[in-house]
Write a structure and sequence with these properties.
The complex is a heterodimer of chains A (about 375) and B (about 400). Chain A has about 375 residues and is α+β, with helices and mostly antiparallel strands. Chain A is built from eleven helices and ten strands. Chain A folds into three domains: about 5-120, Butyryl-Coa Dehydrogenase, subunit A, domain 1, CATH 1.10.540.10; about 125-225, Butyryl-CoA Dehydrogenase, subunit A, domain 2 (Beta Barrel); about 230-375, Butyryl-CoA Dehydrogenase, subunit A, domain 3 (Up-down Bundle). Chain A is about 50% helix and about 15% strand. The radius of gyration of chain A is 21 Å and the shape is globular. Chain B is α+β, with helices and mostly antiparallel strands and about 400 residues long. Chain B has helices spanning about 5-25, 35-40, 40-50, 70-80, 90-105, 105-120, 230-245, 250-265, 280-305, 315-340, 355-365, 375-385; strands spanning about 125, 140-145, 150-155, 165-175, 185-190, 195-200, 210-220, 225. Chain B is built from twelve helices and eight strands. In chain B, the strands form two sheets. A four-stranded mixed beta sheet of chain B has the order 1-4-5-8. In chain B, about 45% of the residues lie in helices and about 15% in strands. Chain B has three domains: about 5-85, Acyl-CoA dehydrogenase/oxidase, N-terminal domain (Butyryl-Coa Dehydrogenase, subunit A, domain 1, Orthogonal Bundle), CATH 1.10.540.10; about 125-230, Butyryl-CoA Dehydrogenase, subunit A, domain 2, CATH 2.40.110.10; about 250-385, Butyryl-CoA Dehydrogenase, subunit A, domain 3. Classes of the chains: A alpha+beta (about 375), B alpha+beta (about 400). The interface between A and B is large, with 45 and 51 residues.
Chain lengths: ~375, ~400
């Protein structure tokens, strides 16, 4: 029983932390909020050079050959540094689906380019109904000879406006259970008929509305099997959910560190406010929430990596907990900072806003709590 | 990172399970503690023979010398199998014993350790006073030198099982002029000493665990001083650290919640179960389960640190607060599940599960106060752990 990181993971974590501190400072994070693309091509190149974009891609396909758990460790550092851009999107929408479910041809075609930083991917799942369950996938793909024709709208899709490819969840058969009749398609994001509009979001991330108008997709671009895509999609989303937990743990940890630092420096009534018990107790509660989040997240991530039978239940449990614990952390972070924390110029709000994005992504606390309850036959 | 047992851990777990399944008495769920203790004499002797009555003690002192992870496994399996633990021996085995091992002379170890291990000597604690709870260092019980003895006058409170104890570990003031932390000495006191009187206190759960202990010119030999004169505070802190680091507090809680969920399923259609009538209760129970898993991981984190040779700092206080507050939330949810039937007390004819959850709801209110209040623990986390300045 060992909850610690391996030597390799420690190296990866420490290196990433230092790298991102230098290469992804607050100024870049703020700049990217206003930037149309939302990411720095220079930083993207740097991440490719570090082997991070292909972290879990096997070496023979140009990747670093590391594991999902290693990706989780790296993602926590991305959360800590609030790295803007389509890193997670590309892992969740590209690397993971292709590695776990792609055909040999699809893997050979796309993974080396992902690893080299030449392609950006994303997962297009949610629609205006804003649901993360099978019911939420209603956009139709009609079979037409050797292709599918897509019509409809996807909404809340991260980074699709800069993506080269998208893994799109479509409905290829109606009637019967919602879980039946879903197909995943690899779609060229620059296909005719696709229109992206980036939305203004609380987390300043680039979530988009995508309109599909008679978009043709070759049948060879099916990921997995036609009509049997829900199991594939669910498996991808479980991995994505645990990664989102890792991101929010890193974010919470940094918010907490900034806050404790502030409490030590800010003087009122002739002493640092961190010497007052009310503040100390909030800080104690923050570290409890951060530590608790990290370890329930590791529990779920490890279970996924090992293919444990309770992995799905643990992901629901972790996302329920991390969603609410992170909210408590950033709320204390705001409160302890007082007035300055409420300004746009001071950095703590950057964490507060992105926490909400992470809380909602892949289902909020109540969504996952319901699934956890069902898994307990409640 | 590996959440599975290593081969060595798995082998040890198997050994523990075999031992429990062979030797431990079968205790029905919901049996009162007094009853299960009464059935366990032979079982505790078996544990003592194996040294497992003192899992954390070094083998040279008659303990099992278990590593932190082994203690975890042992505690987990004991909880899972509902095997009785010698609760009356906890202060001796878990607190006084380790303190004597760390600070005692060879004579003191020879005098007191065997009785603890044999289970013949019950120990209690004389720390808190009416005017010295969280501010323990302000304690006033006086010890004045007189020949080969010290003479004690004063009063202790919240002494668990003092009414059946043979020995007490006691902090008393030997230098009233020194700064408060530096004038305290750690004494070991014979509970049969003339002038020592124990008066029981009944808690709001209607149980007699705690006592007041009055000292009226009680003579304590100098040989019963543990550590140095006036250095007792620091010896006493060792005891508290042992108390706080007791591994496995979070482990039994998952089982509690699973039992609650099972109860809900089994009794779903009865009036004494709100599963079908309270739309919130299934989410509450789900939350409790998630929280016990978080608690379990926070426990494993401490064991994992210790196995790697890291010394936990704020992590033990963090776990103590988390566990205590979670116990209270679990008790709240248990009563919610029972609806009006939740108020029926222990031992009543209509009381679901014999009123066990009603009793626990009351008893659990002590968990955030005893062994260091949640407020003090949060101060420790903030000051010792996060480096925030003292008030």
């Amino acid at each position: 029983m060992d909850l610690g990181l391996s030597e390799e993971q420690e190296l990866l974590k420490n290196f990433a932390r230092d790298f991102l501190e230098k290469e992804c400072p607050e100024t870049l994070v703020r700049e990217m909020e206003e930037d149309e693309k939302g990411y720095s091509p220079q930083l993207w190149k740097g991440m490719a050079e570090q082997g991070w974009l292909g972290l879990i891609v096997p070496p023979e396909l140009g990747g670093s050959g590391m594991t999902y758990l290693d990706l989780v460790v790296l993602t926590e550092e991305f959360g800590r540094a609030l790295v803007p851009g389509p890193f997670l999107s590309t892992q969740v929408g590209g690397a993971i689906p292709l590695l776990d479910w792609g055909s040999d041809a699809q893997k050979k075609e796309f993974l080396p380019k992902i690893a080299a930083g030449e392609q950006i991917w994303t997962l297009a799942m949610t629609e205006p109904s804003a649901r993360f369950d099978a019911e939420g996938v209603q956009m139709e793909a009609k079979a037409d000879g050797d292709k599918f024709v897509l019509n409809g709208t996807k909404l809340f899709v991260r980074d699709s406006h800069v993506a080269d490819y998208m893994t799109v969840a479509v409905r290829t058969k109606k009637g019967g259970k919602a879980e039946d009749g879903i197909t995943l398609l690899i779609v060229d994001a620059k296909s005719p008929g696709i229109t992206n509009t980036a939305l203004q979001t609380i987390g300043s991330d680039k979530q988009c509305e995508i309109k599909f108008e008679n978009v043709a997709v070759a049948k060879a671009n099916v990921l997995g099997e036609v009509d049997k895509g829900w199991a594939v999609l669910n498996s991808i989303v479980l991995k994505a959910t645990a990664l989102e937990c890792a991101y929010v743990v890193g974010l919470s940890q940094m918010d907490f560190e900034i806050t404790v630092s502030y409490a030590k420096e800010r003087v009122q009534f002739g002493r640092p406010i961190g010497s007052f018990q009310a503040i100390q107790h909030k800080c104690a509660d923050m570290v409890t929430d951060v530590d608790g989040s990290r370890f329930i997240m590791y529990r779920a991530a490890w279970a996924i990596a090992e293919g444990e039978p309770d992995a799905e239940q643990l992901v629901h449990m972790a996302k329920t907990w991390c969603s609410e614990a992170s909210r408590r952390v950033v709320a204390h972070g705001q409160q302890i900072h007082g007035g300055i924390g409420f300004t746009k110029d001071y950095k703590i709000q950057l964490y507060f806003r992105r926490q909400k994005m992470a809380e909602l992504m892949w289902g909020d606390a109540d969504f996952h709590r319901e699934l956890a309850a069902q898994s307990l036959s409640l | 990172m590996d959440l599975r047992d290593s081969p060595g851990e798995a082998a040890f777990r198997k050994e523990v399970i075999e031992f429990i399944e062979t030797e431990a008495p079968r205790i029905e769920r919901g049996t009162r503690i007094e009853e299960s203790m009464a059935k366990s004499g032979q079982w505790f002797r078996q544990m003592a023979d194996r040294g497992w009555i003192a899992p954390a003690w070094p083998k040279e002192y008659g303990g099992a010398g278990m590593s932190v992870t082994e203690q975890f496994i042992f505690n987990e399996e004991m909880a899972m199998h509902r095997a009785p633990r010698p609760l009356h021996l906890i202060i001796g085995l878990g607190m006084a014993g380790p303190t004597i091992i760390m600070h005692g002379t060879e004579e003191q170890k020879a005098k007191w350790l065997p009785g603890m291990l044999a289970g013949t000597d019950i120990w209690c604690q004389g720390y808190s006073e009416p005017e010295a709870g969280s501010d323990l260092a302000s304690l006033r019980t006086k010890a004045v030198e007189d020949g080969d003895d010290y003479v004690l006058n004063g009063q202790k409170i919240w002494s668990t099982i003092a009414h059946v104890a043979k020995w007490m570990i006691c902090l008393a003031r030997t230098d009233p002029d020194a700064p408060k932390h530096k004038g305290i000495t750690y004494f070991i006191i014979d509970m049969k000493s003339p002038g020592l009187e124990v008066r029981g206190l009944t808690n709001m759960a209607d149980t007699h665990e705690f006592n007041e202990v009055f000292f009226d010119n009680v003579r304590v030999p100098k040989a019963n001083i543990l550590g140095e004169l006036n250095r007792g505070w620091y010896v006493g802190m060792t005891t508290l650290d042992f108390e706080r680091s007791s591994v496995g507090s979070a482990i039994g809680m998952r089982q509690e919640v699973e039992e609650m969920i099972e109860y809900a399923h089994v009794h779903a259609d009865e009036p004494g179960c709100t599963l079908k009538t309270d739309p919130n209760i299934r989410y509450e129970m789900t939350d409790r389960l998630i929280e016990t898993e978080v608690g379990r991981m926070l426990s494993y984190r401490i064991a994992s640190m210790q196995t790697r040779g890291l010394v936990p700092n704020y992590e033990a206080s963090l776990l103590k607060v988390f566990s205590g507050e979670l116990h209270q939330r679990i008790a709240r949810t248990q009563l919610k599940l029972l609806g009006l039937y939740g108020q029926l007390k222990l031992g009543g004819p209509l009381s679901p599960l014999g009123g066990r959850w009603c009793h626990q709801y009351l008893r659990s209110m002590g968990y955030t106060i005893e062994a260091g209040t949640s407020e003090i623990q949060r101060n420790i986390i903030a000051q010792r752990g996060l480096g925030l300045a003292r008030d």
